Amino acid sequence: MNTYPNSPQVSKASLVSINPNNPVPSIIVLQYNPAELTRTVTPQYEKTGNVPVGTEQLAGPPAETLSLTATVSAIDQLEAGSPLAASMGIYPQLSALETLMFPSCAQILSDQAQMLLGVLEIVPPESPLTVFVWGANRVLPVQITSYTVTETLHDPQLNPINAEVQLSMSVLNYQDFTPTQAGWFVYMANLALREAMALAGEASQPSLPSVITTVLGMD
Asked: In terms of residue numbers, what domain contains 121?
């Protein structure tokens, strides 16, 4: 299908899985950008002793959650005659998302083999890091907390060919990593970017009312 030549290049939302044992990350590009992204930021405050309510101290980074609904469809591929879509529908796309939440077959078999050999303590390996990418300005380490699929169309073999995927994610922060892990750097880079964008916004704001500058001793 031809597109209008002057159409803008739209960035695609994606999930990136970074395995510490594999230098090549796995990238899952969402077929269509969700129409909405819901973000909730809950600050964490700490109060000690007789500290006044107006001087609350931050106990750490806020708890941040993201949720979205993505559409996954094989209809275009079926119209184009894709043999993969004809034989499997959207199973490959759904499976790519779902395997982010499962231990691998290789890991399960390895653990079972160690148990049969009498290994008393099996240390789980470091799990892959999942990074949510929503444009260049929002790249965040996340943990998938909820995944719901509503399959709305199926082919004659009952392969799903159209579905709505609801994803909820918890943003991981610097306290969830050691400073040597990739997730620590991803989070800190995003935090530094947020601070830079906030400063850029402050530069374009109108001057403060005189009563505020007087109270703050800025006049």
From this structure: 14-215
- Identify the band that residue 50 occupies on the pLDDT scale cut at 50, 70 and 90: low
Q: What are 83-98's pLDDT values in tens digits?
A: 999 999 999 999 999 9
164 close to 152: Cβ distance less than 8 angstroms = yes
3-class state of residue 90 by DSSP: coil
Task: Indicate whether 2 belongs to any domain.
Answer: no
φ and ψ at 151, to 5 degrees?
-80, 120
- Amino acid identity of residue 178, one-letter, is T
Tokens of 54: 């107006």
pTM of the model: 0.82
Question: Residues 6 or more apart from 20 whose CB is under 8 A from it?
Answer: 126, 128, 129, 182
Residue whose entry in the numeric block shows the structure tokens 């109108």 = 206
pLDDT in tens, 119-144: 767 666 677 899 999 999 999 999 99
Give the Cα separation of 73 and 156 in Å (integer): 16
